[in-house]
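yo, PUM1 protein is done. seq:
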Amino acid sequence: MMQPVVAGFVGFAVAPGWPAWPKPPVFAAYSSGASSTTASTANTPPASPTAVRLEVLRKANESAGCRELQKLLQFGTWEEQEEILSQLVGNVADVAQSPHGNFVLQHAIRVLSSERLVFVSQELRSWRSPKEIAKHKYACRVLERMIEFFPLEHTFYFMKEIVRHTVELSSHAIGNYSVQHCMEYGNVSCRREIATVVLNHIHEFAVDPYGCGVLNKALIHAPQWEQLLMASALAGDDRVFRQMAAMQKGFAATQSLFQVAQLYPFLNKRVRYLLQKNLDISQTKHGQALLHTLLPELGAIRATGANWQSSEKPQKSKQKKHGNHAKCGNNRSNRQQGYNGYNRGWNH
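structure:
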């Protein structure tokens, strides 16, 4: 016969009414003589620690599960957060390589204190070199969040190695983002070291589609003297400037160069001259956008000028027939067509 009993500490059963500490839930227990029935096996025992650990790792590798874990990390209780973190210990490398799991680690770094996540940097350090992590498709994101949110004592080893391989990583499709993060979130010494490397390879960075991203961050975050040196080197080479401005991924770096040049009249004059000299970059969409952003008057002149040239030829026969008045009218018409063509081009 079934009798309700209370489960005591570590699962020992005690008689009803006896104090039990801490207070656990009440469940139905059965005597050894009870027959084995479907009802007697309805209540399954709690999951083992191994099963719970596998459950968290499974969720971390699923689209819906990783979102659930991120929500618990941000809004859950301290105990829930600690439970998730305790099960990530020893599995950081595997989770960081997961297309879904890396988001769990990223979010933990964003919303939790670095003191609770020391194991993340320790396990990544023992897994692979910072250069290899920076090139990894998914683990690089965890490294970037560490650089962004962790104090320097936790990230110094990683940043030192990234700076040491600045040239190699800056030309890598994925690795360049870690260099950009070091440039943006590193201390003054770190920024100056990266800026020195960029300055020594300024022409290579300017014409490389990935190096341009690092060059852009250097022009924004480097110390002022290094900014001036880089801007002067770029403005002093017509060919390199043209290549950088003509590239789609060179848009941001050219814009940052223009911002630095505005602080120095002689440099500002030189950059404006280079833009006027290379108006043909407006033949591409990003070239038009660049001119429109930096020098709107030059972009307008270039766009309307192209329409005037295309609209003059059909009007020549009419000008001969109708004389000077018709010629003046046609010129006004051509000019209006040019403005309309310019507006249509930008709206598109």
